[in-house]
Specification:
It is a single chain. This protein has 409 residues and is α+β, with helices and mostly antiparallel strands. The chain folds into three domains: 99 residues, Double Stranded RNA Binding Domain (2-Layer Sandwich), CATH 3.30.160; 107 residues, DNA polymerase, domain 1, CATH 1.10.150.130; 162 residues, Orthogonal Bundle (hpI Integrase, Chain A). It has 17 helices and seven strands. It has a four-stranded antiparallel β-sheet with strand order 1-2-3-4, covered by helices on one side. Strands 5-6-7 form a three-stranded antiparallel β-sheet. Strand 5 and strand 6 form a beta hairpin. Helix 4 packs antiparallel against helix 5 and helix 4 crosses helix 7. The protein is elongated, with a radius of gyration of 34 Å. The N and C termini lie far apart (109 Å).
Length: 409
């Protein structure tokens, strides 16, 4: 009987093709071969195991894995198991194909078991990094928990139909049309996410155009769009006096003085501020328009910052809802965002600055895209003077015992 020439560990480790050859096979005996091929990186080689056998007149090469994963001894043991299968008339290649099909079937079964709620959580995690406003995430979670999960949260996502979506939206479409419209959009987003990831297939039953638009009236035809409830600018000085000493008062006052959005303030870090230059530069990633915005700081805004402890991380160290909670306590029904309208009304009625200056303070896009492209200045110095005047207005003394009444415009 001819002796089998077995490979040594040294041969396996050092084997490589001769010059001019791309790959070689080295036999270890017992159907086991070592395949060595040149890597795309010069001087490097890929080494893997192959089980070569013939069954029914057909020769097959069955890959067993990389040398990095399977040592020589382990590869020999795997080859022995496959030879034993052949002795029983079992085709190793067919067995491997069946195992692959079984894994795919199991994955499909797990996908079918994914509930809408599980997909919604995954969808939120996938998109939240792109949201500049932490309030956006909170609203997503809140509306899904309140209106969607009780109806379809536990249903397998691939079983959700148009009727399920209608069941969610029907009770709220006329009562709270703006919220209902957002809920529909969020359901559509979650189902789209699930489809892309293979958890469901087919059309999106929450889509609006050409589908749910045939079932529900447009939001604008049910109720007019409401703006954020705003405080009259003449009331702002008295309001700031009233909140002195309360938790989150400094953050709220700073928000008002800078006419910034709530999340822009609450997410601010010390590295964004230049106290000597009296500027706050908000990165594009945290701006609604995804464009960097430089804010001039009034003396009062600067004083608020200097009174805070300087640590690593965020400037205002409390929860994202603290400012909103303060507003609900002191002025129920008035929103923090509404102070941007207060500032805008004040600038329009009490100053002679062009509207474009106030709009730049609010980081609003002004004019057409062509006009924006040709506007090379951010009017910073004019904005600095305007914000200083706004700070003076907000700090004006409130007469003792006086009642301030906003006049109709």
């Amino acid at each position: 009987m001819r002796a089998i020439k077995r490979l040594t560990v040294k041969q396996v480790t050092n084997a490589k093709p001769k010059e001019g050859r791309r790959a070689i096979f080295l036999a270890d005996g017992g159907n086991l071969l070592l395949q060595v091929s040149r890597s795309v990186k010069p001087g490097e080689f890929n080494r893997s195991w192959v089980f070569r056998y013939e069954l029914g007149g057909t020769r097959r090469d069955l890959g067993l894995g990389s040398l990095n994963t399977w040592s020589l001894a382990e590869a020999r043991e795997r080859a022995k198991e496959l030879r034993q299968q052949l002795d029983k008339g079992i085709d190793p290649f067919a067995t491997k194909q069946q195992e692959h099909a079984d894994r795919q079937a199991q994955a499909a079964e797990r996908a079918r078991a994914m509930t809408f709620k599980q997909c919604a959580i995954g969808c939120i995690e996938s998109h939240s990094d792109g949201w500049s406003n932490a309030e956006h995430r909170r609203q997503w979670v809140t509306t899904l928990e309140q209106y969607v999960y009780p109806q379809i949260g536990d249903l397998p996502v691939d079983t959700i139909t148009t009727q399920h979506v209608i069941k969610v939206l029907q009770p709220i479409w006329k009562a709270i049309p703006e919220t209902a419209s957002r809920v529909r959009g969020r359901i559509e987003k979650v189902l789209g996410w699930a489809t892309v990831r293979g958890f469901r297939s087919g059309d999106n039953p929450a889509r609006w155009r050409g589908h749910l638009a045939e079932t529900f009236p447009k939001r604008g035809k049910i109720a007019p769009t409401k703006n954020h409830a705003a405080m009259a600018y003449v009331e702002v000085p008295a309001f700031l006096t009233e909140i002195v000493g309360r938790r989150a008062a400094a953050a709220l006052e700073f928000t008002i003085l800078t006419a910034a959005r709530t999340d822009e303030v609450l997410s601010s870090t010390w590295g964004e501020f230049d106290l000597l230059a009296k500027t706050w530069t908000i990165p594009a990633a945290r701006m609604k328009a995804k464009k960097e915005h430089k804010v001039p700081l009034s003396d009062r805004a600067l004083a608020i910052l200097k009174a805070l402890p300087h640590r690593e991380g965020r400037v205002f160290e409390f929860g994202d809802t603290a400012i909103m909670d303060l507003m609900r306590e002191v002025r129920p029904g008035v929103t923090v965002h509404g102070f941007r309208s207060s500032f805008r009304d004040w600038a329009e009625e009490r100053t002679h600055y062009p509207a474009v200056v106030a709009e730049q303070c609010l980081a609003h896009a002004i004019g057409t895209k062509v006009q924006q492209a040709y506007r090379r200045t951010d009017l910073f110095e004019k904005r600095r003077r305007l914000m200083a005047e706004w700070s003076s207005w907000c700090s004006r003394p409130v007469p003792t015992g006086a009642t301030v009444t906003a006049l109709a415009r």
